[in-house]
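Next up, sample data.

:::
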Amino acid sequence: MKFLDDIPNVWKRAYILLCLWYAINYAVGTILEWQLENPNTYIFTNAFYLFEALCLLIIAIFFYCNLLFKYSIYIQVIGHAFGVTVYFLIMGTLSYYLEDYVEGFIYFENWKDHLIHLLKWEGLHFHDQYIITVGVYYVIRYFQGLQKEEQEKSELNIKNREMQISLLKSQINPHFLFNTLNSINTLIGSSKEQARRVITQLSDIFRYALDSHGDNMVRLIQELDFIDNYIRIQQVRFGDRLKFVKQVDFSCLSVQIPPMILQPLVENSVKYGIAPKDDGGTIVLTVKRFNNMIFFEVKDDGLGSNAKKVMDGSSSGVGLKNTDQRLKSIFGPGSGLRIRSNEWGYSVSFFIPYAEPGAEANAVETVQEELKSKAV
């Protein structure tokens, strides 16, 4: 039945467990009563009918709780006070019918006396049944609320990551594109071959940026290729004023890192360190492994603390801040950016965990094959 399929499994399991629990209670209570107080076998039939009614009423109580749950806590309390009263009247009346009515006690006074007698002890048992069922409902709703809250946080975190990636892509900003197109326009008249290379490098940069999405990680060697293309294009503009040096541990080339995590750091050095300096300077990218950690650093000998503008690697002012947040969200708070600045230059560094060697063995072989193919 489609109606039953639409009911979450947690409610089905709760219902079955409640019925099983009350079946055990009724069985034990009836056996004790049969042995100690009433040796007649009809008490087993009466207990079975009461148990059947209870199982049906548990369903009604769940629906009633779900109805009350939409209202304020005060209405819920009043509603459950009314509910437990109605439940006692229903179960008490059924008990009266099974025990007294069939024996000839058919008058209102007999019914009233039976209910008053139940209130002395057995009525508490009926009240407990209602209260326990309501308690189970609220416990399930509480944990469902926690689960929903965690799910919403997870979805918000995913959306936040996607937004960060979008911001990251926007860091290939219009100024960079405008300057690159100007450089291509100049090269077309002097060196068409070099102009073609710059166009190819620019297309590789945008392809890499567009392919960087979600939580996908890339190998360090792919990120370095992207940085190389970016630097080559900038060198067309700045010429000998911009020098770039890589000091990369070969064993780190297969390390998985977030895409475009180094670009804001390099752009920061180009834009605020080297570009404003008359004689230019050198940017040094360092990647080294220290035991179970990998160290990344982008350092330049540009203006450093003498720069007039805040160094942040993007026209929108989110470059380094965005990179810092991405690193912390993926690798933990210990992987945030460490920034140092003085009159001789600027340095940005961070650490990430190093994966187990066995997990990277295949990746290293892939990198070696890739390097061989490039050499050819």
Summary: Residues 86 and 376 are 86 Å apart (CA to CA).
